[in-house]
Amino acid sequence: MKDINDLLSLFRPDSAEEESIRKTVDFVFEKIVYYCRENNIDAEPVLVGSVAKGTNLRDGDIDIFVRFEKKYPRAKMEKLGLSIGHFVLENGKEKYAEHPYVTGFIDGKKVDIVPSYRMLPGENILSSVDRTPLHTEYVKSKLSLEGKDEVRKLKLFMKHIGVYGSDARTLGFSGYICELLIINTGNFIKTIEMFATMRGKLIIGDPQYTEVFQSPAIVIDPTDSTRNAAAAISLENLSRMKFCSRLYLNGKLPEYNQSRGGRKKDKKERGTTLRVFRVKKPDILDDILYPQALRFKNAIWGIMERNDLRPISWEICMQDHIDVIIESENKVVPALKTHRGPPVDEPSSIDFYNKWMNMEISRGPYILGDRIYVDLLRQQKSISDVVREGLKKINIGKNIDDQKETMEIFDPYDPGRDSCALDLFYSKFIFQVHPPEKTSRNTRSS
Amino acid sequence: MKDINDLLSLFRPDSAEEESIRKTVDFVFEKIVYYCRENNIDAEPVLVGSVAKGTNLRDGDIDIFVRFEKKYPRAKMEKLGLSIGHFVLENGKEKYAEHPYVTGFIDGKKVDIVPSYRMLPGENILSSVDRTPLHTEYVKSKLSLEGKDEVRKLKLFMKHIGVYGSDARTLGFSGYICELLIINTGNFIKTIEMFATMRGKLIIGDPQYTEVFQSPAIVIDPTDSTRNAAAAISLENLSRMKFCSRLYLNGKLPEYNQSRGGRKKDKKERGTTLRVFRVKKPDILDDILYPQALRFKNAIWGIMERNDLRPISWEICMQDHIDVIIESENKVVPALKTHRGPPVDEPSSIDFYNKWMNMEISRGPYILGDRIYVDLLRQQKSISDVVREGLKKINIGKNIDDQKETMEIFDPYDPGRDSCALDLFYSKFIFQVHPPEKTSRNTRSS
Predict the structure, then answer these.
(1) How many CB atoms lie within 10 A of CB B244?
(2) Domain formed by A10-141, architecture
(3) Which of B195, B237, B239, B247 to probe the A interface (max A CBs under 10 A)?
(4) What is the CATH number of domain B143-249?
(5) Section A75-90 average pLDDT
(6) pLDDT-based confidence at A441, cuts 50/70/90?
(7) Which positions does UniProt annotate for Mg(2+) binding (chains A, B) (predicted)?
């Protein structure tokens, strides 16, 4: 990859951007204070997120929270929050994370205005966004000016290998985790050295707090010692971070290389079968949709497995549609089915025998080990038939269940067919390769 | 099956046969005693086996041991044993089990003359044949006249379902085990009831002796409490005995039904691939050869498994040749090979990456879980090529290694090709189906 310092100078906001951010924040703050005073609302604006902490990259979002007195019931607070948001952002759109919030653009900068409650460190959290201001305070108090750029380098490194972001799709490292890592190790290179030599889990925090967690990565939140701030990080992403850190220190971490990934190869080269399962993409946040897409994939995978189609690998791409691609060894259900009956110790083994002795079967009943078996022949159904039939009986979640009826199943190599999932499929690399589209804002918590 | 009492009257030796056996035994005894006296050998004949115990079936063998004083060294004893055997059996042939012995025919009855040492119960056994006279004494002392016919019924039942015989091929119940079962339960039907309701292992004997054994069937030898007399019995055969006992008590145990087994079916019905691996059959005892045939099968099976040919089932038939038949899901090695590298925690994962980054591969290197992988493409070799290549590196045992060069590999459905292994393959049933040939004498120990 490029020199990390060159990357930093490319992606660090320049003074013009910093000035523009400052103006936007001032403008938003004034309007919120004005609206609250006029309407007698006990709340104030607070700048949070990477801008507040000085760890933002070029063209980042501006996150401004409106902190309400805890006397407001949740519904009331959310309603007031939205009205403030719309007052500030003239063409703002409502989105829904833990609370509804308003997002819009000022001077070409994306601004989110998010309602929350006033919290002190150690107080019981009402919802996870309420933590964000505490995180902001903590990082501001711990991070030096140089530390901020070290965080930026770490974020750029993680973006390069595709593990930056704690959303449901990425399952990677959040900005807050990057900040905690730099606070802990001191700088970028020490963090990389830590990952390069790490064995097993990532664990940061007092053992009395860390030992209750099972995840591959455990980083105790300094503002709440009962919380694992690294819970989102998947084993794969921790592995990618370790491996790429090792490569980086050896001077061998590559640029993302299109000639290795992204090729639409001739399927015959692999001798396998590829199928795309496509449903319409409902208009909801990726963070809510992606886990459902994953359940959708798991349902199809399970059906294929139970029918001996022998699935091998998969990808999910959510662009205009939800495309699940699954590669399998078999194109049709194998005729032979070795059907396992009960152990001979069970009286029901006799029922199994009586049933199959009266049927036209391929072989048996016979005994292997301590059980009775028969060899049956089944119809050699196509992947498409088996999956359509199987999905009827499986409840995936309303958003996707509604789309089952219009699901398309196709071979991505068929003339006129294509899928971004196929590109992902052939892009598999030590980096996590993200879908080509610009995804919508995934998550609100830091 | 037929009524067990009808079977008994069919297969119990009639009085003419009993008279003929008596005459033969007297004749053999006289000749042995004469030879020993003339040659000053300290040994005497003893009648052992099922004839001695009165549990023999029609047309059974006559087993006569020559018991030597322990002063004779093994080589001397064996040499004298053979000379006695040849003196008695004019056209006798030498066979080799634990000691060499002589087998031949007198008046159409097969007679084995086997050398052994004089032993008392509890004495350290010099070789396992030395136990046979002790077994004979024990059973004679415990079994009533009625008990003898109960043993015969049990043997006939076990022959019917194919689990009678403790040879390396059958791995079933020996005659001695049948006798011990009847001595234990009292009669045939109680033995069947015991198996029909048994859960888990067959265990007979004091727990202090049985608990040291791991086999599916444990029956402590009353003449040697450190020995499991049922060690040969396989889990399958114990299961068959339980299951068929259950069926028998329900009046549902069938005759062996050719219309269910033994069909040479159209291979296309199963959508699988069948291959016969044929080598010449060396002229040695089945008990020595069969374990090697099994190793031969295991070697081929392992090669097929490692090459993702996905073997499903197998049979071995030893008639004129050793024929191993293996059914597999794949006819050729699949092109795609998902090649697993080291865990990313290991520095060697970098070597793996460097190696494959310079190669033309299908996909990767990529990370799954905590390891690095690549997808490779291989040549889609045939079963025959892969197995021939793989067997070169595997040592199976001299008798079969010598035959590898001339091994034939063929599809049993090819015109002009056939194999008794294919008949066995389609005969798979709750009974153990034995190869169609008359096998040679398998074993000498009871």
Answers:
(1) 27
(2) 2-Layer Sandwich (3.30)
(3) B239
(4) 1.10.1410.30
(5) 95
(6) very low
(7) 61, 63, 112
